[in-house]
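Data follows
____________
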Amino acid sequence: MVESCSGSGSIQSNKLICSPSSQSTAKVNNSSLSKRTMVKYYTGIQVFKFTWDQVASSFWQRYPNPYSKHVLTEDVISREVIDKKLYTKRLLTKTNPVPKWGERFVRGPPQICIVEESIVDPIAKTVTTYTRNIGLQRIMLLEEKCVYLTNPENNHWTVCERAIQAFGLERYKKNVTKANQGFQHILEKCYLPETSELKSQGKLKLKQTAIKASQLARHPVLSAASQIS
């Protein structure tokens, strides 16, 4: 994955998408972000070795997956087709560790609500998403834009171009890695079931080997016996 990170900045397209029929277009609250001196900007590119059709189809099946256990719920708020484009707005609930200094602002389990707005354009072959948090804004801020499009160097692959503006950037960069791993897992599960099964078997075998090694380490007699045999 190619990535870059700079200091404070702003996502160029600061307009959250809504259907053209909507009278009230949601906009990113740039003024609130500008007040946060620690807001940083991050861009990255992830290549998925699957066609755009496969990626676009699997986009709605991303959760649950082993890498995104922090995603608790996902609900569709609205969905409509306009000018042959699919407009969707979803609400996701996630858990997110709160920094020590922010614990006094949170009561109970730290859960955050995320709004994801997307446009799927099957003609241009693009999936564009805008994501922002609407909860816990006093202690964390996130604005993210992702564009999934055909890789210009290989039309059998798909590129995800991601731009993030966040308060507490390192936390979100780790989440990006998990998101990419989770989506890769779903794609392999859908289109490469044998590969996915082999990976699962390999992980299980490694886990069993690690458990056996741990047991031997705790029992010197067993360890010595295994070396003799």
